Amino acid sequence: MSAATFRLPAQLALIVAQVDAMSGGRVELGLGAGWFERNTVNSASLPSSVGERFDRLEEQLEIITGMWRRRTLLLRG
Predict the structure, then answer these.
(1) Residue 2 forms beta bridges with which residues?
(2) DSSP single-letter state for residue 10
């Protein structure tokens, strides 16, 4: 489980894909908006409002699923 504000989406997608490959497909990714506000307020680079965090979550989901779809297509083709 990770908050969308903790890692860049491409980095997270690669990490999870690598662990999934090493574990034989037993990885599940949990991604959230980051409910604990203090984690986002303490860092100037992270979005602090709930709306900004949900926007970041939506963007990360698009990037991660897009990367995984592309990887799957490349492996098949």
Answers:
(1) 31
(2) H
